Amino acid sequence: MNEAPVLALRGVEKSYRSGDHDVLPVLREAELTLHAGEIVALVAPSGTGKSTLLHLAGLLDTPDDGDIVICGQSTRGMAEAGRTALRRDQIGFVYQFHHLLGEFSARENVMLPQMIAGRPKAQAKAEAERLLGMFGLSHRMEHLPGKLSGGEQQRVAIARALANAPALLLADEPTGNLDARTADAVFTELLDAVRQKGLAALVATHNEELLPRMDRVVTLRDGILVPR
């Protein structure tokens, strides 16, 4: 691929301190590139650093060393305001638990990130309705999250992640809280949306059945990212 990657991890290092003296290395010189239209699975046992890697890639945490490059922009030494703007404008997040705001309707949950980014309310509403319609939720827009099924809640969360037209989607066990049948349906819709929009996506999952549907699989071995 000739175009610049949407995400590049370059020599990323991350350790955590345990107790007063012990340092636990989680990532060692991690290297990864994702291009537009590419869906990569991240598979590794629990506790090996998958969530840490996603948090770093999503600019929710900073590496001890190395660089996270988003859409050609190095974030090494970038001020927090710049990281926040890049995260808001270029990155969408989907988690195992939907993290929807319970006091807001499905439509409002998808409108909020757009309005925070400065989109006029009418435009945010129209885009929220378009996205929810794409996920078959046109008849559920006024419902609060507590009135939606688990699959519907996760569909709203995916629509919210796509609301600001990100270049990069990061998903941490996006169907891990759903039964097998619902997980398959939601994951199919997620993949379809990502491919339709030409996003780069990094998806952490334990579900081996999903792996053949993605373009590449990487894993963490002793803190190093390697192809699987």
**What helical percentage do the residues reach?**
25-40%
Q: Classify the secondary structure makeup into a structural class.
A: alpha/beta
Largest sheet geometry: 6 strands, mixed
Q: Provide the number of structural domains.
A: 1
What is the distance, rounded to the nearest whole angstrom, between the alpha carbons of the first and last residues?
A: 20 Å
Assign the CATH topology: Rossmann fold
**Strand arrangement across the biggest beta sheet:** 6-7-8-3-9-10
**So what's the overall shape?**
globular
Classified by CATH, the class is: Alpha Beta
Number of E-type strands: 10
Q: Element order, helices and strands? A: EEEHEEHEHHHEHEEE
Mean pLDDT: 89
